[in-house]
Write a sequence for this structure.
């Protein structure tokens, strides 16, 4: 899994620069009780038609358990969010960000998880709409230490909710953020001076705090919806599960009038141990509710062994089901990868080895998957 390649001294590395020039942070673990805002949609003006709408007042938060939410599909609004033919892109830029409001910050991992991951709900007032699979930029407060007098650099985070947000009203977005901390390799102690500025700002935020956001950005991980019976194979390490949470809520939790999913969604999630699982109760619930349309496989590197007796990483789990995965890809399935970039070499090596065992050229197969737009990768 990706974390193994980073070395023990860094619990969550500082975000590297992505292909579009922004710094990218870690993206979001599911918890059994997420906070939802119980507020109606106000007015009919589409969010991207006007940047003047104000975020709602934060009133009493309604706690709706995953079990309650999934008994029947939940109505979403405004349905006008389905009307756009193209995804919204870069509505707010780094020089003119949108000031949003923190709704809630919840720790998602258990006590035995290495590091801390938080689920952060942000109220954008309907002014920064997005599609599933896109990212927000976050500008943490303070000066850029490398450019005194300038603001901090934008960090990108994959959005972990559908376009309707956790409140189902199109006014919030959720992020899945791992707190980035640095441990001195000699002393073994945490060095606060090298902690991740943005991830710590977000994880330390309180309801009502303001946050500067940009975007949305990204088209690589958009969920193709032209065929509602398609197969989607989703592979994640850690917070890379964020976009898939959005996909799966759209497929199985929300009553979306224009999208009735009847295909197969298959999630592979690699984390360190059971306490590190993200959104596990939510995903397990889909498994119970939609056994014919959802599969869920976990790779727990510190608790499970692969067939060779080594640690179980997500690529080992993929190899277990390689014949089935290849047949699905041959049938047109989409495959997605999201997480730390260190995950990809091991996965690519596994897929290449499997292809050769099947008498196929992996390079040719990969080229065809890309040509057919079946191959979706977002690593950071």
């Amino acid at each position: 899994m990706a974390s193994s390649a980073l070395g023990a001294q860094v619990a969550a590395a500082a975000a590297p620069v992505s292909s579009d020039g922004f710094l990218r942070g870690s993206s979001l673990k599911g918890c059994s009780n997420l906070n939802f805002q119980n507020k109606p949609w106000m007015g009919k003006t589409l969010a991207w038609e006007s940047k003047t709408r104000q975020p709602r007042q934060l009133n009493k938060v309604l706690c709706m358990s995953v079990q309650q939410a999934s008994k029947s599909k939940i109505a979403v609004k405004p349905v006008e969010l389905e009307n756009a033919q193209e995804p919204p892109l870069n509505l707010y830029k780094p020089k003119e960000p949108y000031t949003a409001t923190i709704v809630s910050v919840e720790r998602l991992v258990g006590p035995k998880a290495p590091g801390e991951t938080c689920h952060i709900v942000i109220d954008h007032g309907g002014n920064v709409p997005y599609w599933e699979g896109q990212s927000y930029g976050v500008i943490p407060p303070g000066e850029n230490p490398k450019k005194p007098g300038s603001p901090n650099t934008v960090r990108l985070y994959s959005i972990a909710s559908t376009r309707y947000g956790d409140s189902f009203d199109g006014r919030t977005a959720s992020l899945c953020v791992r707190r980035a901390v640095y441990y001195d390799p000699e002393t073994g102690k945490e060095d606060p001076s090298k902690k991740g500025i943005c991830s710590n700002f977000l994880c330390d935020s309180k309801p009502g705090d303001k946050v500067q956001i940009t975007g949305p950005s990204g088209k690589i991980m958009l969920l193709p919806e032209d065929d509602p019976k398609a197969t989607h194979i989703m592979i994640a390490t850690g917070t890379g599960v964020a976009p898939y949470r959005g996909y799966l809520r759209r497929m199985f939790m929300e009553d979306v009038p224009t999208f009735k999913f009847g295909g197969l969604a298959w999630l592979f999630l690699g984390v360190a141990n059971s306490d590190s699982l993200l959104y596990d109760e939510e995903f397990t619930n889909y498994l119970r509710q939609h056994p014919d349309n959802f599969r869920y496989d976990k790779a727990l590197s510190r608790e499970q062994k692969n067939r060779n007796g080594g640690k179980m990483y997500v690529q080992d789990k993929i190899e277990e089901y390689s014949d089935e995965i290849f047949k699905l890809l041959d049938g047109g399935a989409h495959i997605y990868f999201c997480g730390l970039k260190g995950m990809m070499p091991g996965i690519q090596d596994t897929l290449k080895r499997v292809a050769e065992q099947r008498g196929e050229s992996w390079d040719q197969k990969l080229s065809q998957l890309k040509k057919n737009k079946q191959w979706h990768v977002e690593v950071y």
Q: What stands out?
A: DSSP finds eight helices and 18 strands in the chain.
